[in-house]
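Record 1 of the preview.
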Amino acid sequence: EKDQDKDKSLDGDEAASSNTAASASLMPTIWDKTIPYDGETFHLEYMDLDEFLLENSIPSSPTQLNGLMSVDELEEEKESQSCPPSPTPSGVMYSVLDDEDSDDSDCGQDNLNPVSTEAVEVPVNFEPDPTDLVLSSVPGGELFNPRKHKFSEEELKPQPMIKKAKKVYVPNELKDEKYWTRRKKNNVAAKRSRDARRLKENQITVRAAFLEKENAALRLEVAELRKVVSRCKSVISKYEAKHGAL
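->
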């Protein structure tokens, strides 16, 4: 009888332990399910893992599966999942290319805008004689600047040759005060005209000397630029021959 009582107590303990284990487990016992097998009708079929877990009420995400994780760990994992993925190198490359394209387009727009010739300075070794500058300047005015001075179209037009009028002989008895007054006015006007013409000639001469120097410097610069353009064309032609047209 004592042995029978011991067996009953052991059976009761095993049943209690199995009940507590089943209640402690959050997942159903898959091994309790039986699959009919008769040797002929049994065959393997493809089964999706997600469908299998869903049919058996098994959580698929690791956060749901691990019920022992703390609240802080769960929040950190959610934050890491909510963070956007870092941009791939290709994405960075595309953005860089887009920036370059926008820069190129901006540069193209800048090139289309007209450039003021006054803002462009050409390095020219030109040191005019100070006396020539004084002779080319208006008395009491600013010193003539051959680098910046501009002539109007009328000033640059060729001037016709003016023939002197024939001298008219006037007897001494007819040279009265009115004659001498008119002659003084004519002499002053003629001198003023000669001075203005000489001043303009001096200005044009000094300006032409500077333009000759500037023209020579520009020709050298154009020759260098042509060499650079020729080298660039050669490089582009080799690239297109190897990789195709740009």
